[in-house]
Amino acid sequence: MTRRAALVTALQRRISGLRQAGRRDVLDHPRIRALIRRLRAAPPSIGFPAAADGDFLAFAPLLGKLLNNVGDPMSGSLYPGHSKDFEREAVAYLAELFRARQPYAGYITSGGTEGTLHALHVARTRLPDAVVFRSQAAHYSVEKATRLLAMDGVVVGADAGGQMDYEDLARCAARHRDRPAIVVANVGTTMTEAVDDVGRVHAALDAAGVPARHVHADAALAGVPLAVFDGPRPAFDFTDGADSISISGHKFLGVPMPCGAVLTTCHRADRAPMIAYTAAPDSTLTGSRNGLAAVMIWTVLHHYGRRGLHQRAQQSRNLAEDTARRLRELGWPAWRHPLAMTVVLPQLPDAVAERWPLPTEDGWSHLICMPGVRPSTIDAFLGDLQAALSASTAHARHRTRGRRGNASPTATPGTATAVPTARIP
Ligand SMILES: *Cc1c(COP(=O)(O)O)cnc(C)c1O
């Protein structure tokens, strides 16, 4: 190499090094550094259903380009930066897990909410003037979807464990038997992970004399773990009688950005209007769609496979069972549904809730042993609860001595309420 060529090469290296340094500088803002610090310092979450056992940093090379799966996933696209082949395969994988026997249509959504909205939209197209039945334990997005579609909604009761009251469904549906019924079954309710049985939903509609119907399974959290379970489980999939199923991708599958999937067996996506601008039918709720999420869902499904997904779910269930038992041993009445990763427990004392924020409704909280929750995290949580409880017992004893028995020995620290009695369904 001549001296001149060597100089040019050295100069080029230096420029490319500077460019890379410049790229690093993008994240070198105090606000971004503070955000990264805050995320790293955050204790592991046990209150919300996001699996945290995946390592998605390897996807970095895919961040260099916009991946946009605009329009129908079955079609191509004028825009070349898409991953619709991955999307179709991911949806096909889910269709097999959910035992779709008829032709199906499906796509990767922005989350469980879009999945339910799309499913109800498809159902309304097929059954105009239908009444939408949901249980009182349904996710808040179901009421919103019903309202957005300007449909009539009826709230059906649920039992103490969160499962739909099928007799109440039959009664409510009978009142509207002259109209088609759309029923949203919860496959893992938000608070207790209760699962509505689609077979019993159909039986209730039969009893009510409702002929035309669509059953949507809102399976945001529990759809995949139940689908891969190899023992008796509640009926919820296509072969069991569901007409559409939606899941979230950032819950059990652990994709590190909100996303999901929806599948229907009655949607003629190919009849959606063809859009010349994108060269794809407009069959999806949103136009531009997240192609990176499609690749990530595809990767998770293929990386684990049915067996690996089952193992992850079983580990979660075992940890949940163990946690519920240890809570009860501490005198904190906890319970779980047999196949759930969720443990339901009385609202925590304030001092513990501050460290371990758990969603709470009507005096009951839950924690979720998602894949990625470590046994050591549960140990730390139980240790904090135990410490708070013994402090409160000591405090109560002290007060009892001081005030000659005025204090209630069951009072929990920081909360006015005593431990609620367990309602184990
Ligand atoms: C999380 C959840 C949803 C909403 O899903 P997003 O992905 O947050 O939009 C809907 N239904 C149930 C039962 C859920 O658990």
Give the topology.
Elements (H helix, E strand, L loop, with lengths): L2 H23 L4 H12 L42 H14 L7 E5 L2 H15 L4 E5 L4 H9 L3 E5 L9 H10 L5 E6 L11 H11 L4 E6 L4 H5 L16 E5 L11 E5 L9 E2 L4 E2 L9 H39 L12 E5 L3 H6 L4 E2 L2 E5 L6 H29 L22
Helix pairs in contact: 3-9, 4-5, 6-7
Bound molecules: pyridoxal-5'-phosphate.
The arrangement of helices and strands along the chain is: HHHEHEHEHEHEHEEEEHEHEEH
Give a count of the beta strands, DSSP E runs of length 2 or more: 12
Largest sheet: 7 strands, mixed
Distance between the termini: 81 Å
| Biggest sheet strand line-up | 1-7-6-5-4-2-3
Query: Average pLDDT across residues?
Result: 90
Low-confidence stretches: 402-425
Work out the strand percent.
5-15%
What gross morphology would you assign? Answer: flat
Structural class: alpha/beta
Question: Which kinds of small molecule does this entry bind, naming each only once?
Answer: pyridoxal-5'-phosphate
Tally of DSSP helical segments: 11
Rg (CA only): 26 Å
Helix content: 40-55%
Task: Outline the structure in words.
With 425 residues, the protein is an alpha/beta fold. The protein has helices spanning 3-25, 30-41, 84-97, 112-126, 140-148, 166-175, 198-208, 223-227, 291-329, 350-355, 375-403, and strands at residues 105-109, 131-135, 152-156, 181-186, 213-218, 244-248, 260-264, 274-275, 280-281, 342-346, 360-361, 364-368. The strands form three sheets. It has a seven-stranded mixed beta sheet, sandwiched between helices. A three-stranded antiparallel beta sheet has the order 10-12-11. The protein has a two-stranded antiparallel ribbon with strand order 8-9. α3 (84-97) packs parallel to α9 and α4 crosses α5 (140-148). It is flat. The model is unreliable at 402-425 (pLDDT under 50). It binds pyridoxal-5'-phosphate. Pyridoxal-5'-phosphate is lined by residues 111-113, 139, 141, 186, 188-190, 218, 220-221, 248, 258, 260.
